[in-house]
Specification:
The protein is mainly alpha-helical. It is 77% helix and 0% strand. The chain contains five helices and no strands.
Length: 128
């Protein structure tokens, strides 16, 4: 069972790299590129959307949201484009893990919006 999980993790990692390549492929429809961009930014962001120290929800991000996003993105890509991207991703995997600055900016932006709304709600309650 452990070997099966390791293999599945390896395939997921390869597909995440392949999505990074596929997002730039002109054969991929524009709506899929937008979704792919979000999935890739989230997957390779050095900052988690939900930090791991948050009980249960922290790991929800890593165990459910990321694989689900990758699975949905894979369904949007034409098979021939995905096959080419997977071949290229094999080479990338040997070179190291990419880090997405766009993903970090996206996560920081989401947290800033959440904090701004919370501060606004608190200030509104204090004034009333």
């Amino acid at each position: 069972m452990m070997e099966k999980l390791k293999r599945r993790a390896q395939v997921l990692k390869r597909d995440a790299y392949a999505l990074t390549i596929a997002v730039r492929d002109p054969r991929v429809p524009w709506y899929a590129r937008v979704f792919l961009g979000l999935v890739v930014a989230h997957t390779f962001s050095p900052i988690d959307l939900i930090p791991d120290f948050v009980p249960v929800l922290g790991y929800l991000d890593d165990l459910i949201i990321t694989p689900l996003g990758i699975a949905l993105a894979l369904k949007m890509i034409p098979p021939e484009a995905m096959a080419d991207a997977r071949r290229q991703s094999e080479e990338w995997m040997q070179q190291g893990k990419p880090v997405s600055r766009a993903g970090a900016i996206l996560v920081i932006s989401v947290w800033l919006v959440v904090l701004t709304v919370l501060v606004w709600l608190i200030v509104r309650q204090v004034i009333e």
